[in-house]
Write a structure and sequence with these properties.
Elements lengths: L5 H8 L7 E8 L6 E9 L2 E10 L7 H17 L18 E2 L5 E6 L4 E2 L7 H17 L18 H14 L9 H9 L15 E3 L8 E4 L5 E4 L6 E3 L1 H12 L17 H15 L5 H5 L4 H19 L11 H18 L1 H15 L9
Antiparallel strand pairs: 1-2, 2-3, 3-5, 4-5, 6-8, 7-10, 8-9
Length: 370
């Protein structure tokens, strides 16, 4: 993460439509891409907290279009009456962002208090609420008016393309690391069929989040209910299976993705059941049969895909994901592939869960959103 001094933060917030001076700031979040801060601004002896974020323009090549998406999505969610949804603070030039002298893009929002987020669930209700929150997010954006959203990262969840990127990184071996991944290379080759298990072009194209980690849902610290979905940089047209699969991948693993001891990695089927219940509670009126049929295989595909991305980045010299040491992306890839192995052992049980939960909701009146 870049180091930003107090004076630098003050200069940035001076460009947004708020009054007051910086009282304090702290780094927030554990994201691998953007920089996030909580900043407390004092005005007339009253302190107000805000979220300040620097958009990584090396990852998101068109931050202005990204922020157009962000603004459209947040305004639409507000029109739905979503609780504590994100609200952008305009810059003093009337834009949804501020660009500093070094070319960094910044956005600012009121800080949401009284909430918690988790990297891993502590109980089944956390998984249920996350599934429900992301499902409701998709449902609420089903009728977003206007032109399609901009694709902030083209081919983001194109598993075949990620496989090709891995092959390209392996061929180039620009960091001279391929000898360290020979065993994983064999694992990847044996599961190439996962590249085509989700035929997204045959499924409805909807507005999806594309980064459905558990810590991208704020939960009420008193009730435990989902309050708001956050981190909207990758919201764009796509396939609901990618969102569901990524949430399962991130939530139903026994350890954090940065765990070094892969013997601790296992798939947690009870959390999968909770996510499925929450997700279908929110989306059963929206989903088509082909989408439901793909829910059980989606976590395997997305876990494979992320493993490819981590390994490709490792072979290319760690250019995409933030790392704290030279082999962190390799360690992350190993965690994903061990999780995939564990998922494979539970695949039939996952199908049974989806079928049972879908059938429980089938008698209810349905109105599909296309």
């Amino acid at each position: 993460m870049n180091t930003f001094k107090r004076d630098s933060i003050q200069k940035i917030i001076d460009n947004f439509s708020i009054s007051g001076s910086l009282l304090s700031y702290e780094v927030k979040g554990t994201g691998n891409v953007n920089d996030t801060f909580r900043v407390d601004v004092i005005s007339e002896n009253c302190s107000t907290p805000y979220t300040l974020q620097r958009i990584n323009h090396n990852v998101f090549k068109d931050p202005e279009s990204l922020m157009t998406n962000y603004s459209r999505v947040t305004r639409h969610l507000q029109s739905k009456g979503s609780n504590a949804c994100l609200t952008l603070i305009a810059s003093k030039k009337g834009k949804s962002f501020f660009r500093d002298e070094e070319g960094n893009f910044w956005r600012m929002m009121p800080y949401i208090d009284g909430v918690q987020c988790y990297n891993l669930p502590e109980k089944s209700s956390h998984a249920y609420e996350a599934g429900k929150a992301f499902g409701q997010f998709q449902l609420d954006l089903c009728d977003l008016p206007g032109d399609p959203l901009f694709e902030t990262i083209p081919n983001f969840h194109n598993t075949s393309n990620r496989f090709k990127e891995y092959l390209d990184a392996r061929e180039a071996d620009s960091s001279r690391r391929f000898q360290e991944v020979l065993e994983l290379d064999q694992f990847i080759s044996c599961r190439k069929n996962l590249c085509t298990e989700i035929e997204a072009e045959q499924l409805p194209r909807r507005i999806v989040h594309n980064d459905t980690k558990l810590n991208n849902v704020l939960l009420d610290e008193n009730t435990g209910e989902g309050v708001s979905v956050i981190d909207l940089d990758t919201v764009m047209p796509g396939c609901v299976l990618h969102d569901f699969g990524d949430l399962v991948r991130a939530t139903c693993c026994s350890v954090d993705e940065n765990e070094k001891d892969i013997s601790k990695v296992s798939f947690l089927l009870p959390f999968f059941e909770s996510i499925t219940k929450g997700y279908l509670d929110a989306t059963y009126t929206m989903l088509e049969q082909d989408e439901v049929s793909g829910l059980a295989c989606a976590p395997l595909v997305i876990t494979y895909e992320l493993g490819l991305r981590f390994l490709s980045d490792f072979l290319s010299g760690d250019k995409y994901f933030k790392t704290n040491h030279s082999h962190q992306n390799l360690e992350r890839a190993k965690v994903q592939f061990k999780l995939l192995e564990s998922m494979e052992k539970h695949r039939e049980s996952m199908k049974d869960v989806v079928l049972r939960e879908w059938q429980l909701r089938m008698p209810k009146e349905s109105s599909f959103c296309t």
